[in-house]
Each structure stands twice: as C-alpha cells, then as structure tokens.
Design goal:
Ribosomal Protein L22, Chain A; three-stranded antiparallel β-sheet; two-stranded antiparallel ribbon
Amino acid sequence: MQIIAHGIDLVDFPRIEKMVEKHNDRFLQRVFTEKEICYAKKNKNYIEKLAGRFAAKEAVLKLIGTGWRGKIAWTDIEVVNDSLGRPEVVITGEVKKLVEQSGIEQITISITHTANFAICSAVALRNTDG
C-alpha cells in the first residue's frame, strides 16, 4: 500500500459544546449520523467523543482536498469503532464518489484527545500491487 494523501484536524471541545448548546438536535443531525450520536451519548465524555468525530470528518475532507462544499454532507463521513474500539471511516454519497475518483482505496484514521482538544489524522492509501 502507498500513502497518497494525508489530512489532519484539531477541534477544541468548547467549539462543539457551544454548537450543541445553541443548535442541539439540528446541529447533531446535520453533522453526525445516528450511530455517531448514540456512541457519543453512551460515554460520559459526550462532547469529547463528538469533537473527535468532527475532527475526523474534517481530516477526511482535507485528505480528499475538497473541504466541505458542493453536494458534500457531513454525514457522508461516518466514524464507527471496530470490535477492538479502533475508529474506522465509512464513506457514502458525494464523498464516496470523490474518493473513488481520486484513486483512494482505503482511509485509515487515528483520533486522540487531551483535556480540551481532539485531533484526528487521516491517511489515504492505494494498493501498489498489479
């Protein structure tokens, strides 16, 4: 596998907390999928989990080089956890089209948190075999 692109994003918790307080369900449903919202609400660090997923969405958009524009929906990028708790990206919609056009075959992410920030690093991979 060959690394063909990288995206990174840093989100401060107060930014997400303010959006949730101001817009509540409207913000949550516009930006996050039901799975992401349920996952975050199950954790005592609710805002931290939302911030990590928001950072992941931004990192993926940077990785594909578009930012959030056009027909892209925030929910085109979903962050789920595998059986070991490792975050994985599921892409759909316009983002999936853009990823396929760019030759990206796999996206891996890593999310970490501090007391006030969440950061995500996203790497795009392409198979070098054949």
